[in-house]
Design brief:
It contains 9 helices and 20 strands. It is of the alpha+beta class.
Length: 348
Amino acid sequence: MSYKDFTTEEFIHDERFRKWVLNTDPETNFFWEKWLLQNPEKSETIKEAKLILQNIRFSEAPFTTEQENQLWNRISNEIDSTKPQQKVLPLQEDVATKKRPTTLLKVASVIVLLVISGSAIYFNLNDEPTPASTIQFITKQNPKGQKSKVILPDGTVVNLNSESSIAYNKDFGKTFREVELAGEAFFEVAHDKSRPFTVRSGKISTTALGTAFNVRSYEDVPTQVTLINGSVEVVNNTNASKILLEPGFQVELKSDNHFEKSKFNEPEAILWKDGILYFKDTDFKKVIHTLERWYDVDIQVENMPDRELICSGRFKNEYLSNVLHSIGFSLDFTYTIDNNVVNIHFNP
């Protein structure tokens, strides 16, 4: 679902958005934090929708006519009280006096829909919003071009790749161990037989006791779990199918929602955490995506040939210019770098 064109009212009536505001859990919290980073222009709309929802109190009790009338009177009084008391029309509209009545009118339309649907609500116009949940989550996040190492409270070591983030409950490890991942991370899990360690990433969950494994869950590539040692159970959250991995195997969630299991070359699978870019017969378009994420750049390509372009190479802590020079020599292109923009031009 695309939220880019959503209005305040549409956000309020979206089940996933309401779940985030009113009953926060790691998965929804992580989704919306990431979405806001990708769509900063919607921050004001999101803020307004959250404010409205946080001021609405839901109850199982019947919503009587008298309560409805009282609610409408309060809204009307609030709108009237915020109108500017002046006889002369100003030369320019005062934004400060305009914003609150507009918001209240939106609230009123929301209430109408909720009342019609049979929901009972209490709306506190003058009260400060109260937290929807006492659950608190800790988020560790890397932008493009940055990697980091995170030590979880149980001693688990997480190597977090660029454009990736993890989120976990502040009480992580007391009763259970669970993290949400977007992007890619390598986990060296502290052994604890009584408390399995679970990574939720997109449509799958990976559970282990004490082991080392890699999870890749970027939006532009299939989700993949790679096991280095120990054992893990990978679950497809959409259809409950499961697969048990042994060391030396990896599983990938395909577009048709089925698992595909295969062997892999262990050193090559986790070279990224040691600062090594590795390509082996990799499609050039995938190489471009990897370089954009690795170096935090935007790459534009001109005169791209129709033929298939395959790249191979190994680069350890190299400057982007050196990587492009090497690949450009084999594929016959030139390039320029201007701040964070790279232009690649294939020779005729």
